[in-house]
Design brief:
With about 300 residues, the protein is α+β, with helices and mostly antiparallel strands. Helices cover about 50% and strands about 10% of the residues. Helix 5 crosses helix 7, helix 9 runs antiparallel to helix 10 and helix 9 packs antiparallel against helix 12. It starts with a helix and ends in a 5-residue tail after the last helix.
Length: about 300
């Protein structure tokens, strides 16, 4: 028996012989045939690149080594605080997947320039009015972006397979389309969580028949939110009292995460507390991304105020 389109998608996602851009094009074809509404938006952005004002998935925010070129030499900048380092060093990687793959074909680190306005700010901040500032991003961080995209497509393909969605040639039955639609695709802050509910380690749990209801929150979706925000939040430079408040709010969310029916009002209050304390870390690419991610999640679940 020849492999189905879902088999091919899993095989392509598992190995490295097929490029991520080619893998995404096949995933886009599968999504179109299954008439899945949300996934193509994410794939289109990954294939074509994100706009400057788009909220980026967390995996596309990377930390670089910022250096200033002074008298012909590159000198790493010295930060006066962790907060300053986060604001300056965390950069957006918003180019297309093909652009990223092209950059990886070159030797050495990726150099990301700052805008003219940012250059002036950095020149004044570090008292080097003639310096040129650049962020050097290690290639391993670009590889990690492509790996995460490949992983998400693989998890979706596994979820489809487990749900009995396989197809024949390039066609899928009405029943298979309905099963594909029952797999929750959560779009948050520019990112789509694909087919993984309750397990971010790689195995796919299929939520068959689940439909979001007004005032109701799936504990698996809450777990996904926690998995996305825990690490970024832990890297914020905050006063001890603010850190304690954040940990308390995260603990409240975890308590609801493991319950059968999360209390929407409790989840809303915990997320408001998190947003309030994240704001105390000051503006940065990281805090802006966290805010956009959480606020979009709240809006999707009817928790926005």
């Amino acid at each position: 028996m020849s492999p189905s389109l879902i088999d091919e998608l899993q095989i392509d996602a598992t190995g490295s012989a097929v490029s991520v851009s080619a893998l995404l094009r096949k995933a886009l074809l599968v999504a179109a045939k299954l008439e899945v509404p949300d996934l193509p938006n994410w794939i289109d952005r990954e294939l074509s690149g994100y706009a400057p004002d788009d909220a980026l998935p967390p995996y596309r925010l990377v930390r670089g080594l910022v250096k200033g070129r002074v008298m012909g030499r590159w000198i790493a900048v010295q930060y006066s605080s962790n907060e300053m380092e986060t604001e300056i060093a965390v950069r957006r990687i918003d180019g297309s997947v093909a652009d990223i793959e092209g950059l990886l074909s070159r030797e050495g680190s990726l150099k990301i320039s700052f805008s003219a306005e940012a250059q002036r700010v950095l020149q004044g901040l570090f008292s080097e009015p003639r310096a040129e500032f650049v962020s050097f991003v290690d290639q391993a961080r670009l590889v990690a972006i492509l790996d995460e995209i490949r992983n998400r497509v693989l998890r979706w393909a596994i979820a489809l397979d487990k749900a009995g969605v396989r197809g024949e040639g390039l066609s899928f039955s009405t029943s298979e389309k309905e099963k594909a639609h029952s797999i929750v695709l959560q779009q948050t802050g520019g990112s789509v969580t694909i087919g993984v509910l309750g397990d971010v380690s790689g195995s796919a749990n299929v939520a068959t028949g689940y439909q979001a209801k007004a005032g109701g929150i799936d504990p698996a979706e809450l777990q996904q939110l926690l998995a996305q925000i825990r690490d970024p939040i832990s890297s914020l430079n905050l006063a001890p009292a603010d850190k304690a408040n954040l940990q308390s709010a995260l603990a409240d969310l975890h308590a609801d995460d493991v319950s059968k029916r999360p209390d929407p009002s409790r989840v809303r209050e915990a997320l408001r507390q998190i947003l309030s304390n994240v704001g105390k870390a000051g503006y940065s690419v990281l805090t802006a991304g966290l805010n956009a991610y959480i606020e979009h999640w709240m809006k999707q679940h009817g928790l926005a105020s």
